From TrEMBL:
Pfam families, per database record: IspD
Record-marked site positions (Transition state stabilizer): R15, K22
Superkingdom of this protein's organism: Bacteria
Organism from which the protein derives: Salinithrix halophila
Protein family per UniProt: Belongs to the IspD/TarI cytidylyltransferase family. IspD subfamily.
Pathway listed: Isoprenoid biosynthesis; isopentenyl diphosphate biosynthesis via DXP pathway; isopentenyl diphosphate from 1-deoxy-D-xylulose 5-phosphate: step 2/6
Residues under site feature: Positions MEP for the nucleophilic attack: R153, K209
NCBIfam families per UniProt: ispD
Cited InterPro entries: IspD, IspD/TarI, IspD/TarI_cytidylyltransf_bact, ISPD_synthase_CS, Nucleotide-diphossugar_trans
Name used for this protein in its record: 2-C-methyl-D-erythritol 4-phosphate cytidylyltransferase
EC number: 2.7.7.60
Annotated signal peptide: none
GO molecular function, one term: 2-C-methyl-D-erythritol 4-phosphate cytidylyltransferase activity
Name of the gene encoding the protein in the UniProt record: ispD
SUPFAM superfamilies: Nucleotide-diphospho-sugar transferases
Length: 237
């Protein structure tokens, strides 16, 4: 299976409240981005990774990748856009594979097992995403701040990444989305707009996206928990 990975990493992350872009923040001694990249760089199905970064950060990212031993022929850089959607589209154009995974730069805890299950599903359907059932009761609220209705929790899932697609399908979805000026918070929305059925693969609650300062605290706890479990089993993180 020939798989390319697109990782949009051109965001600033205003909600993190840091002067440093959140993908470069430290997690247990290494930048979050490096920990995320290692997951895919070590997966046997992944042929190459395209990293979309801000133009002014490209030189610094090249140096960072070199320091951590990444092959420049395997981890490719491209110019990111103002919005995530544009960054993914630019990265997608550089993918040379039948299948593509799109993953958030600041989700450093996705597992190899999750990726395996997602790749199996996408070969059957052409589009598949990771998600987990919502734990909390969810209310639909009016602009004025009043509850309009309570949504049926048993049918609600919180979407994660990576998301997996046929490259040809996702290219068409992004092209038509750009043409129609259709805003999308994830790539599955663009596939859905084509009428594509997207398969949901159950993910892991630990597959956290680092968005706010509180998430960094949770990330450190997840890292320590996994490190402890790996030490006990004799494997490495």
């Amino acid at each position: 299976m020939r798989v390319g990975v697109v990782i949009p990493a051109a965001g600033i992350g205003k909600r993190m409240g840091s002067t440093v872009s959140k993908q470069f923040l430290d997690l247990a001694g290494e930048p979050v981005l490096i920990r995320t990249l290692r997951i895919f760089d070590s997966h046997p199905a992944v042929g190459h990774i395209v990293l979309a970064v801000r133009e002014e950060e490209q030189e610094a990212v090249e140096s960072l990748l070199a320091r951590h031993g990444f092959d420049p022929g395997r981890v490719l850089l491209t110019k990111g856009g103002e919005e995530r959607q544009e960054s993914v589209f630019q990265g997608l154009k550089r993918v040379n594979a039948e299948w593509v995974l799109v993953h958030d730069a600041v989700r450093p805890f996705v597992t190899q097992k999750n990726i395996d299950e997602l790749l199996k599903a996408v070969q059957e359907t052409g589009a598949a995403i990771l998600a987990v059932p919502v734990k909390d009761t969810v209310k639909q609220v009016s602009p004025a701040g009043y509850v309009e209705k309570t949504l049926e929790r048993s049918r609600l899932w919180a979407v994660q990444t990576p998301q997996a697609f046929s490259r040809a399908l996702l290219l068409e979805a992004h092209a038509k989305g750009a043409q129609a000026d259709l805003p999308a918070t994830d790539d599955a929305m663009l596939a859905e707009a084509l009428g594509v059925s997207v398969k949901v693969v159950r993910g892991d609650y630990a597959n956290l996206k680092l968005t706010t300062p509180e998430d960094l605290v949770l990330a450190e706890a997840i890292w320590k928990m996994r490190r402890s479990a790996d030490d006990q089993s004799g494997t490495r993180v």
